[in-house]
Amino acid sequence: MKAHLTRQASIAWGLVLATILLGWFGRDLAKALDARWLVKVPSSWDIPFSTYISAAMTWLVEEAAIGPVSFTGATRAVAWLLEQPYELALNLLAHGFTLGTGPQAQVLLPAASWIAVTAAVIALGHYCRSWGLAALVGACFAYLAVFGQWDSAMVTLASVLIAVPIGAGGGLLAGIWAYRHPIGERILSPILDLMQTIPIFAYLVPILFMFGFGPVSALVATIIYATPPMIRITIMALKSVDPEIRDFGRMAGTTRRQLMWRVLVPSASQSLMVGVNQVIMLTLNMVIIASMIGAGGLGFDVLAALRRLDIGAGFEAGIAIVVLAIAVDRLSQAFAERMGQVHHAAAGPWAARHKRTVLVLSLLAVTWVLGRFSPLLLDYPASQTITTGAFWNDAVKYLNVNYFDVFEAVKVFFLQWFLLPVKKTLLGIPWPWAIAMLTLLGWRAGGWKLAALCGAMSALIAVSGLWAKAMVTVYLCGASVILATLIGVPLGVLAALNRRAGIAINLLIDTLQTLPSFVYLIPVVMLFRVGDFTAMIAIVLYALAPAVRYAAHGVRSVSGELIEAGLVSGCTKWQLLRLVRLPMALPEILLGINQTIMLALSMLVITALVGTRDLGQEVYIALTKADTGRGLVAGLAIAFIAIIADRLVNAGARGARIRFGLES
Asked: How far apart (Å, rounded) are the C-alpha atoms in residues 133 and 141?
């Protein structure tokens, strides 16, 4: 057995070494053999998927119709339906209600006062949990006013107020359908996989084509992006309802509809609110990207600051998104907890039972009336706002002036000794060899089905004409994931073994996870300029959290009996870590690396803004040219890379669990 394992290990290492050597010398070998097709897929083999998709989209928009209703008419109807509530929320929170357009427009009713909105969230916080939560969310909204971010924040909040109910409601209905019909789950599962692995930017291109440039397109993209988690959580929550509750409902004589809406959904309400919370957070995560196709608000402020490299303004708007996200997140979590509790209805007239609502409505009316005489009651005075932009700009300027040589030395070191060798090796691997190795790896990790999946998806990337850019994507993502793992796993182990260090590391990771992905680009661009190194730093910062959290969870989850056995055997702390804790935590660490890969791939399109030349750049160019086919093909290629990595790492993690007896 030992000899068999040794032979297998020797073969595996031999193949790895052969792949590295082929990658390093592949181009020279192909040149010497006069077989350049080995490293560059012949263009005559390309299948013009992008042309087919673009033609299909053109037909869909210009000719497709069901009876008298054209596809364009249907999209316009959807846009109109979305626009009405959005305009209402936008006017109420940001613009006010006006009559007429342009300079002649007359204000009929101003936007809700910052005082009334802040009072409303304070009342909501008190209703959902306590005065403590009320103070927290009140402070968050006061921050937006005092730091001059109120107007943009209200535009963003209007988008959230429309996108979240539609995303959560649509996800709930789709999840219920999939729960009732097993075939529905089988249909939805691969669609959700694709939706969650295709880069967000790829959504924007066809949506822009169908709905045009504007806030409605941004709303549609946000809803599509934020809905999949709600569908998955709905299916899981309904399945996890206690069978006794389900049986009790049936015995009580409920119909199928009554069983669902009066028994199962209320029983699963607490889990369902977790899904709503996820929809809210993804909606806020989307605000910057959606600003590229017409959404205004804080996302547009961050994007505009990034384009003119104004680090101060970018940080201010980015922090405002974080503050808004904290307030909405805490409120939704508290509301979910309240949904799971039993509350007795108070007696008395409506006004007595809804004192908070009466108070907020009264405050709103008073500020509207008195605001005509005192603008302070409607808008926070601009002269009293505080800005931190100059501080951030001065800080970056100081670092650049005093530590420019250090930053350049670090950048050159990583480029010369890490990034460029990895890039040369990956781009030099003959593509038939790469496809064969992926197929072999799939067969070894998960059998013939995974082998077929890996082989088919990698072959499709090759014949799409995007093989070279796909390899650049793998290089940038792979280098970032290696660095994130080398930093994240030791941090996770330290967080698990040392309580004080764990508190500090968790605080750091919480901060990194709350910042919008675009915000990472601003400081690294200012310090390291544009290029692959800058992109790698931004990706590592964005994708570091799962590596840390899963490693910490894995080390903490090691059985106490195993630790005790190790101590009894005389292991030192280092031996205990190396021989017991880390091997047993390996499945969790692999899952963390899997999530790190997914986050790194989702960040690639954003890093296209700093000059990378990968599939992310292809998607970004397609967006700027409204080229649907080009954007979707590049997006699907990224999704294929993500699916291959996800399946291989998951199969590896399962194999590790089986080896350690954690799974049969």
From this structure: 12
Q: Which of 476, 365, 282, 308 is nearest to 112 (CA)?
A: 365
DSSP code per residue over 319-332: HHHHHHHHHHHHHH
Q: β-pairing, 65-66 with 69-70? A: antiparallel
d(CA 207, CA 289): 13
Whether residue 160 is predicted with pLDDT greater than 60 in this model: the reply is yes
Name the least confident of 236-245, 286-295, 486-495.
286-295
Query: Mean pLDDT across the stretch 1-16?
Result: 70
Q: What percent of the chain has pLDDT over 90?
A: 19
Residue 378 CA to residue 151 CA, distance in Å, equals 12
Residue 222, phi-psi category: left (phi > 0), alpha (psi -120 to 50), beta (remainder): alpha
What SS3 class is residue 98?
A: strand
Rounded to 5°, the CA angle 96-99-105 comes to 85
Alpha-carbon distance 643 to 465, whole Å? 19
Structural tokens at position 373: 């005489």
Which H or E run includes 109?
Answer: strand 106-109
Give the per-residue pLDDT at 289: 73
Question: Under DSSP, is residue 340 helix (H, G, I), strand (E, B) or coil?
Answer: coil
Q: Tell me the C-alpha to C-alpha distance, in Å, between residue 183 and each of 195, 236, 238, 259, 568.
A: 19, 16, 16, 21, 53
- Quote the CA–CA distance of 75 and 496 in Å, as a whole number: 52
User: For residue 197, which of 646, 553, 500 has the smallest C-alpha distance?
Assistant: 646
> What are residue 33's phi and psi, to 5 degrees?
-85, 0
**Over the stretch 596-630, which tens digit does the pLDDT of each residue have?**
888 888 787 777 777 778 888 888 888 778 788 88
In this structure, the strands spanning 97-99 and 65-66 are unpaired
Is the pLDDT reported for residue 658 higher than 60?
yes
Tokens representing 125 are: 């916080």
List own/partner pairs for 210-215 with CB under 8 A and 24 or more apart. 210/60, 210/61, 210/75, 211/75, 211/78, 211/79, 212/79, 213/293, 213/294, 214/293, 214/294, 215/83, 215/86, 215/159, 215/294, 215/295, 215/296
Angle at 533 between CA 637 and CA 402, to 5 degrees: 155
Beta strands in 123-183 (DSSP E): none
